[in-house]
Amino acid sequence: MTTRTRIAPSPTGFPHIGTIYQVLIDYAYAHKTGGKFILRLEDTDRARFVEGAEEVIYASLAWFDLLPDESPKIGGPFAPYRQSERLAIYKKYADELISKGHAYYCFCTRERLETMRKDQEAKHQPPMYDKTCMALTPGDVAAKLAAHEPYVVRMKIPEHEKIAFDDIISGHIEFDSDVIDHQVIMKSDGFPTYHFGVVVDDHLMEITHVFRGKEWISSTPKHVLLYKYFGWQMPVHGHLPLILNEDGKGKLSKRHGHASVDYYRKAGYLPEAVLNYLSNIVWNHPEGKEIYDRKEFIEQFEVTAITAQAPRFDLKKLDWVNGQYIRAMQDEDLLARIADFDDRVKQLDKTLLMKTMPLVKERMHLLSDYWSLAAFFFEAPKEFERPLNKELVNVAVNALGECDWSHEKMEQAIRAASDTAKLKARDVFMELRLAVTGKMVGPPLLESLEVLGKDITLGRFQREELDKLL
Ligand code: GLU
Question: What is the pTM (predicted TM-score) of this model?
Answer without folding.
Answer: 0.92
